[in-house]
Amino acid sequence: MDDLGIGQPEVQNPRNVWRIFARNYYLFQGTPTRMWLDYSFQEEFGLTERLSENNADHYYDVIAEKLQTLEFRPRALFERFNLEVLATTDSPLDSLEDHENIRNSGWKARIIPNFRPDSVVDPDFPGFQENVSRLGEQTSEDTKSWRGFLRALRNARERFRREGCTATDHGHPTAETADLNQPEVEKLFSEVLSGKADAGRRELFRAQMLTEMAAMSLDDGLVMQIHPGSVRNHNPALYKRFGRDMGADIPRRTDYVSALQPLLARFGNETNLTVILFTLDESTYSRELAPLAGHYPCLRLGPAWWFHDSPEGMMRFREQVTETAGFYNTVGFNDDTRAFLSIPARHDVARRIDCAFLGRLVAEHRIDEDEAHDVAHALTYRLVKEAYKL
Question: Which domain range does residue 32 map to?
Fold first, then answer.
């Protein structure tokens, strides 16, 4: 971390950092990161010789030069990549000023916000109490009361919806949901605001908030995404020295059948609600997720995510999910990259894996070739547009 300049206000010698990366590039052999980078190096920068310590400076110079050209400005890349829509991830406290600036600039690209309320619904989020107060100030609601808190969230969601938002995103440690009565939830809300709630009560509050978010989605039409199962900042020494989100995020076992029961008991049969489930626990594919999505009208399965956003991970997903849930209870492929130049590479990998799976079904006479063509288009394009109301 120190050699790479992590934690410093500014990297003092970026070329030296790149040389360290090139010298250790062999460590990425067999990983999706290697595939994405090789694709980008070749397709975007014309670099066909494999990156190594010997050509590190040549790579650095070519990339640095091209990044200064008009062709590599973000808007030019957006259009070159033929992107129809890009969604950012935003806190309810975000002003969305950037979205307004894009719209006022006259650029016609569709860039929309995505509602990520963790900062005001997760008591373990840094600054939770202050965030709830700020939400009240922004929405002119009394967020010290349960009813006022819910009104503030609804107001924030409506503000996002006016900016083009079609989906919410919830990154909880588990998929636990709850459906408490009014006195119970008011007492729980008072506990978490006071900071006196223990770990179990804080988890119960997160669980209740997923059900509340589903109720709001049924009213305002926003698609709901649940991304559970990551133990974040697992390395305490790393966290203490460099802060959060430094790579020490580890997948954990995740229950869906029991965890989602309270939410599904209320909303599972609603055809006007869409809840997209993701997982970091592959053991749930055929045992829990595929049967749930195959049964409940509101559920869809998101693509192989994070640690499993890889050729082998994508193939395991298709193999274990399809026989029970089929293709049309999934949402095709959408990526959540933070590396803009990796977007074409990641979609290319997903399309190749899906087509390889479909090709095998055709070769084994399990579907016809014309059906495979239709499914390939659905997985690549149609299902994700329909699921996210794009």
Answer: 1-68
